[in-house]
Structures are given as C-alpha cells and as structure tokens.
Design a protein that fits this description.
By secondary structure, the protein is an alpha/beta fold. It has helices at about 25-30, 50-60, 80, 125-135, 155-165, 180-195, 225-230, 245-250, 260-275; strands at about 30-40, 65-70, 90, 95, 100, 105, 140-150, 170-175, 200-205, 210, 215, 235-240. The chain has an 8-stranded mixed β-sheet, with helices on both faces. A two-stranded antiparallel ribbon has the order 3-4. A two-stranded antiparallel ribbon has the order 10-11.
C-alpha cells in the first residue's frame, strides 16, 4: 500500500506529525490491508452506501477478504443494510470491527452508540478525528480490500481521509441529474488536489426496467456517466439500474443476498486494476 505523503498537499511544509507518518499503533501493526478504496460522490442521495455495500459483497464472492469503514458519521447506514446489530468489540490493542453474516468486517459509529437512531451532534473536527481513529485504532486483521464509504461533500471527513489514510484509489458514484453532475465534478477536482488515483466512475440509478415489458425507463433523465468520466479523464465502470429488489433487501438488512452481474463485473475490474 502506497505511503500517502507524496500525494499530500502539505508535503512541502510537513512537520512529520500527521498520522500517515507517525509510528504505527498496535492496532495497525495487527492489521494488514492490501488496498484502500474510497467511495465518494460529493452529492448525497446517489446510492453511494448501497454501491459500497454491493462492491464489498461482490469482492467477497470472488474470494477476497473485505472490510468497510463507514465514514459517514452523522448518517451511517452500512450496519443497517447488512443487518448488523452487534456492537463493535474491544481488546487490549484496539477496537474489533463487527462481522456480517458472510464475513465482511465493518466499523461504523452506529456500532459504538447505544441506539442506532441516536443523533450525532458533533462539529467537523471531532467527526474527522473519529474517522482517523477508525483507521488507527481498529484491528482489521488481514484484508485484501478496505472500502471507505464517505459522506457527501468535500469537507472535513474527505480532507482528513486524504491527509491521514493511504488511499490507493477512488471510485466516484454519480446519478443522471444535472445537479449531481455538477457536485460530483467538485468531488473529482478535490480528489485531484490530493493526486488521487481513480478506479473509475459508476453512474447509479441510471434507469429502471419495466417488470412487464422490460422497457428501459430513464426516470432521472438521460444518463451521462460515460460522458462525465470522459470529461474528467477517468475510467467509466458501469451504468447501474434502480432495482426495487436491492432496496428491499437493504431495508431488511440482507444486502448480502442480492446478486448482480454488473457489480460482479465492477469487482473484477477493481481486482484487475490491482494486478496491473
């Protein structure tokens, strides 16, 4: 996994005190994470957490050891869609992530608070510090992939992530609305400021297929994901439909039961990217 110092925007004036160059914690020494992938969009409501969850499931089905760091501190949804109700554990060297029914490790603030609907009324710096601790203080063990589900926007959390976590690549999630297009471009430009490598762009909710006649209906307008990717100079990974079945299983906490060739194909592309 590449050191993040070379891509840090403050490298020329760095004092050497940022978390990426500090001595490793005991939890980090007990963890071996081969690839860290950030899932971001900048725009809320594009299904980023569902995409993160399904990428984790598809990677796991291809024999990979996978974890999810839920960095959406004020709006965490990863435990809900996986049906995880057990709280995170602890040992003498750090926090132990919860494990889904099929073996995906997850950490989320909802696994640390008494009730899943308790609000998090914290300011940005505190939230950013929690995300850093999810990296430094969680005993992840051996993972082929750690997926980071980022919150919308380009504020404290993504800044903290890029500055303190050695991210190997970024997956951008967008949807057909023009508003989403504009905001997502902001996220891409932010990632470029940190010299991030892009695994590619996914256009979610591009269409829905009529269950009776199989006609494709573009509810949110004409998909433009491939055009967006080309404009930004990043690979285009896939165009995903709205699938009520995915929503149903996510609401039930059974996202691991959902199957999709498109997600499997994306996972294969991520694995091939690692090999290249």
């Amino acid at each position: 996994m590449a050191n993040s110092c070379s891509s840090c925007s403050s490298a020329s004036t760095c004092s050497g005190s940022c978390p990426s160059v500090q001595e490793k914690t005991e939890a980090q020494k007990a963890s071996n994470i081969k690839n860290v992938i950030a899932i971001m969009s900048g725009k809320g409501g594009v299904g980023k957490s569902s995409v993160t969850g399904m990428l984790a499931v598809s990677l796991m089905r291809q024999g990979k050891k996978v974890g999810i760091l839920d960095a959406d501190i004020t709006g965490p949804s990863i435990p809900k869609i996986f049906g995880v109700k057990d709280k995170a554990g602890a040992c003498e060297i750090g926090i132990l992530p919860a494990v889904t029914s099929q073996g995906i490790k997850i950490i989320s603030l909802n696994l640390l608070v008494p009730n899943e609907d308790d609000p998090v009324v914290w300011r940005g710096p505190v939230i950013a510090q929690i995300v850093r601790q999810f990296w430094t203080d969680v005993v992840w063990g051996d993972l082929d992939y750690l997926l980071i589900d980022l919150p919308p926007g380009t504020g404290d959390v993504p800044i903290s992530m890029f500055q303190s976590i050695p991210v190997d690549g970024v997956v951008i999630v967008t949807s057909p609305q023009q508003l989403a297009t504009m905001v997502v471009r902001k996220a891409i430009k932010m990632a470029n400021l940190y010299n991030a490598q892009f695994y590619g762009l996914i256009e979610n909710m591009a269409y829905v297929e009529c269950p009776d006649c199989q006609k494709r209906i573009e509810i949110f307008g004409k998909p433009s994901g491939e055009e967006q990717a080309k404009y930004s100079g990043i690979p285009f990974l896939a165009e995903l439909p709205i699938d009520p079945r995915l929503a149903e299983l996510s609401d039930k906490g059974q996202i691991e039961e959902y199957r999709s060739e498109k997600f499997d194909q994306i996972a294969t592309q991520l694995i091939n990217k690692e090999k290249s």
